[in-house]
Amino acid sequence: MSDNKNEKIIIANWKMKLGFGDSVKLAKDFSDKFADFKEESKTVVACPSLVSLSEVKKVLGDNVKMGAQNVFWEVQGSYTGEISPNSLEEIGCKYVIVGHSERRKHLLENYAMIHQKVKTLLSSSKLIPIVCIGEEADDRKTDRRDYVLMNQIQQALGGVNIGGDQKIVVAYEPVWAIGSGTALDPEEAKYAHKIIRLALNDMFGMKVVEANFKVVYGGSVTSENVKNFSDLEDIDGLLVGGASLDADEFLKICKNI
Ligand code: PEP
Predict the structure, then answer these.
(1) Which atom of ligand 1 is nearest the CA belonging to 178?
(2) Which of 10, 173, 245 gets mutated to test ligand 1 (max ligand atoms within 8 A of its CB)?
(3) What is the domain range of residue 30?
(4) Domain count of the chain?
(5) Do the Cβ atoms of 239 and 11 come closer than 8 Å?
(6) Residue 57 main-chain phi, psi, to 5 deg
(7) Where are the alpha helices (DSSP H) in 1-110?
(8) Which of 40, 118, 147, 238 sits at a 20 to 30 Å CA gap from 110?
(9) DSSP readout, 187-243?
C-alpha cells in the first residue's frame, strides 16, 4: 500500500478452506498468473492459513503481498496458541486481517479486542491492519446500519494514533453478504462507504484519512459483479473470500476493479 490515494488494494482471504498442500499449490498458481500483473496503482494481498504462511511466502512471487488472517494483541508472553505480530513480520507478512466477522461469531472476538490488536500493530510492528466492520442482516432490516458502523469504527479505532506513514485498511463487510452469493447493491455500497468515510474523517481529519486509510468492500464479490464496485467513489478495493480460491477468477477481479 502506497501513498497514492487512487491505489486499489485487493485482498484474498483463503480462510480455513485449504490444507497446507493445497495452499502452497494455490500460491504457486497465484505466482504464475500474477507474474505479468504489473498495475502500479493496485496492490494484491493473499491471506493463507497460519500454518501455510512460511511456505506460501516462498512461492508467492513478487506481485502478491502476504497477509495473515489473525494476530494477538501482545508481542510476546504466556499466550498459548496465539500469534505474535513480530513472528508474522519475521516470515514476511505485510498485512493482517483483524476482527473478521467469522472470528467475531465463532470465537467471540469483540471490538475491545480488535482495538487492542490495532493499537499493538501500529505501535509495535509495521504490519498493516485490515480492520473488519459490518452490520448483521437484522441491523439492516431495522435501519440501524449507520449507527452500527459508526459504533464499530469508534470502538475499534477511537483514541488510536495514526500518523506518518502508518497505513490502515478498513474492510466494510456486511455480515449477511459474506459467503451468501449476494453482494451488496452498488448504490447501498456507495452510501455505506460514504458513512464510513465521514465517520473516519470525523475521528482523524480528512487529510489523515486520505493519506493513511483505505476503505474496501467485502461480501460475495466475483468476476461477474466486480464491475459494480470498480468506479464507486470511496471504495478503495475489495476483500474477497470464495472467489479468491481460484487464481484465474481472482486475477479477473483484480484486473477489473
Ligand atoms: C470474506 O471472507 O471476507 C468474504 C468477503 O468472503 P466472500 O467473498 O466469500 O463473501
Answers:
(1) 10
(2) 173
(3) 8-256
(4) 1
(5) yes
(6) -55, -40
(7) 20-33, 53-59, 85-90, 101-106
(8) 238
(9) HHHHHHHHHHHHHHHHHH-HHHHHHHEEEEEESS--TTTTHHHHT-TT--EEEESGG
Cell numbers that stand for 83 in this block: 500469534
pLDDT at residue number 230: 87
95 domain-assigned: yes
CATH number at residue 64: 3.20.20.70
Q: State the cell numbers at 150.
A: 459508526
Tell me the catalytic residues. 100, 173
Rounded Cα gap, residues 169 and 200, in angstroms: 12
Per the domain annotation, does 44 fall within a domain?
yes
Domain for residue 3, yes or no?
Answer: no
Q: Model confidence over 52-77: pLDDT tens digits?
A: 999 999 999 889 999 999 999 999 99
Q: Which residues have CB under 8 Å from 255's CB, separation 6+?
A: 37, 39
% of the chain beyond a pLDDT of 70: 100
* Cα distance between residue 56 and residue 63, in whole Å: 13
Distance CA 31, CA 245 (A): 13
CA distance 139 to 152: 13
Nearest atom within ligand 1 for CA of residue 222: 8
Using the mean position of ligand 1's atoms as its centre, give its distance from the Cα of residue 36 in Å. Answer: 25
